[in-house]
């Protein structure tokens, strides 16, 4: 049995450069597709959020243009309706320990840039996963949650790691780059990451050691499938 800690941001807004609050939450596709993939693989999934608060969906991720059409948006809404009891029953992230799980996954949306990106306790949890040679997987804006993770000597834990995230170009095309307090690609590169990017909005997955990252919403299922395949290979 594989035990997965599925960490979701509890933020419902992203504070922009001018101090205004942009409504956000988790990105629907980035939660639904991996959760479904991991469930189909037979994983035992524990959903955790900061403070055990019920996470909210980014309303923009359910708009037909963002979701991939009316039918796709409706399907995501149906999936989230079914998952609502699971999300509403999220456990406090602060009570979870790396030794109780086999891997860690975080979906994106701008929300992780508001809370997980500055959560030192979560950074410690990530460090424990990495030091235990356990997979840490994050998609789109979720790699912001890697920023508070430091090695015992004070060096950023993922310095010199190859990774990806939502790119500056995609943020520009999404229309929020000029309002952002900081851009994720820039911050990861400044911290010491070796940044890798594919074509905008196309699937792109990067694996370096036990760190698995996906560039954008389209990378959600390919990232989860890669995690499942590699964990299965490990066990054979």
What best-fitting shape do the alpha-carbon axes yield? Answer: globular
Taken as a percent bin, the fraction of beta residues is 15-25%
The helicity comes to 25-40%
CATH class: Alpha Beta
- What is the H/E string? EEEHEHHEEHEEHHEEEH
Structural class per helix/strand content? Answer: alpha/beta
Integer average pLDDT: 97
The CATH architecture designation is 3-Layer(aba) Sandwich
CATH superfamily: Class I glutamine amidotransferase (GATase) domain
Output the CATH topology.
Rossmann fold
Detail the poorly predicted runs: none
Distance between the termini: 14 Å
Question: Can you describe this structure in just a few lines?
Answer:
Pfam families: DJ-1_PfpI. This is Type 1 glutamine amidotransferase domain-containing protein. With 236 residues, this protein is α/β, with parallel strands linked by helices.
Describe the structure.
The structure is a single chain. The chain is α/β, with parallel strands linked by helices and 236 residues long. The chain has one domain: Class I glutamine amidotransferase (GATase) domain (Rossmann fold, 3-Layer(aba) Sandwich), CATH 3.40.50. It has seven helices and eleven strands. The strands form three sheets. A seven-stranded mixed β-sheet has the order 5-4-1-6-7-11-10. Strands 2-3 form a two-stranded antiparallel sheet. The relative contact order is 0.16. The mean pLDDT is 97.
């Amino acid at each position: 049995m594989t035990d997965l800690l599925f960490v979701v941001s509890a933020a419902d807004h992203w504070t922009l450069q001018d101090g205004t609050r942009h409504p956000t939450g988790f990105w629907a596709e980035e939660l639904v597709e991996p959760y479904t993939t991991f469930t189909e693989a037979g994983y035992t999934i524990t959903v955790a959020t900061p403070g055990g608060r019920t996470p909210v969906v980014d309303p923009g991720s359910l708009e037909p243009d963002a979701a991939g059409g009316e039918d796709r948006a409706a399907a995501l809404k149906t999936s989230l309706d079914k998952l609502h009891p699971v999300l509403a029953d999220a456990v406090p992230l602060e009570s979870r320990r790396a030794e109780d799980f086999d891997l860690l996954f975080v979906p994106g949306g701008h929300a992780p840039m508001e809370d997980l990106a500055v959560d030192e306790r979560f950074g410690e949890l990530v460090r424990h996963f990495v030091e235990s040679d356990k997979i840490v997987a994050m998609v789109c804006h979720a790699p912001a949650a890697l920023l508070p993770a430091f090695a015992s000597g004070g060096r950023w834990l993922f310095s010199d790691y190859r990774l990806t995230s939502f790119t500056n170009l995609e943020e520009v095309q999404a229309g929020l780059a000029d309002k952002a307090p900081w851009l994720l690609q820039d911050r990861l590169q400044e911290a010491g990451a070796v940044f890798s990017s594919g074509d905008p909005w196309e699937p792109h997955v990067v694996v370096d050691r036990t760190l698995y990252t996906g560039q954008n919403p389209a990378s959600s299922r390919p990232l989860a499938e890669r995690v499942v395949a590699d964990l299965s290979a490990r066990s054979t």
